[in-house]
Amino acid sequence: QVQLQQSGPGLVKPSQTLSLTCAISGDSVSSNSAAWNWIRQSPSRGLEWLGRTYYRSKWYNDYAVSVKSRITINPDTSKNQFSLQLNSVTPEDTAVYYCARDPGGSYLRFAFDIWGQGTMVTVSS
Amino acid sequence: QSALTQPASVSGSPGQSITISCTGTSSDVGGYNYVSWYQQHPGKAPKLMIYEVSNRPSGVPDRFSGSKSGNTASLTISGLQAEDEADYYCSSYTSSSTQVFGGGTKLTVL
Fold first, then answer.
1. Interface contact B91-A64, CB threshold 8 A
2. What are the two backbone dihedrals, phi and then psi, of residue B8, each rounded to the nearest 5 degrees?
3. Going by C-beta distance under 8 Å and a sequence separation of 6 or more, which residues neighbour residue A45?
4. Residues in chain B within 8 Å Cβ distance of A116
5. B79-105 pLDDT tens trace
6. Cβ-Cβ contacts under 8 Å, B103 against chain A
7. What are the angstrom distances between the C-alpha of B64 and each of A14, A59, B67, B79?
8. How far, in Å, CA of B17 to CA of B31, rounded?
9. Per-residue model confidence as pLDDT tens digits over B56-85
């Protein structure tokens, strides 16, 4: 049974970096079929896909245009997890952040079948 | 990338059928068969209900079905049950290799 366990601070100061981690059990971040995503949800922006990382003989990343200049998603194969870093945050980045798996297969499904528990991150001084 | 357009709310009585629409463009919904639908109860993470327009993951009741015509995808729930009351979101792959969600639809079971 695949599970995703999120960790990271719930409060970040404006202009600082938001950092979250998603630990994977029951699958591998280095899977040649799955992709690993970050998604956030706020009342003002609804559900917003942020980006993904996946391995197909080498590592690939795709990022949403809205955050492309500020976001990094990194795999950590030694701990079987992946992380989100969002730089220069503002109060508009306040949201519930989720990690999620695209189960893939012979190709990505572009759907999210397993979700983390969610982390409420507030950007405030 | 603009969010996909969904009605803010729909309602139906137990046993009835309802349909939720999700309208995009030829760069997302209309261009790819990668539309998915999610159910979200308050305080919970979204749950995948439909992927690739019309496929149901294991464990999702066959009361849930999906379809697409042109730039509009639809989720139909037949035989409405009280536990179907939730928020529903669509999502699509886009021509920019990104993904976009709809604004969400609140389903009320009367």
1. no
2. -65, -35
3. A92, A95
4. 45
5. 999 999 999 999 999 999 999 999 999
6. 46
7. 42, 35, 11, 9
8. 28
9. 999 999 999 999 999 999 999 999 999 999
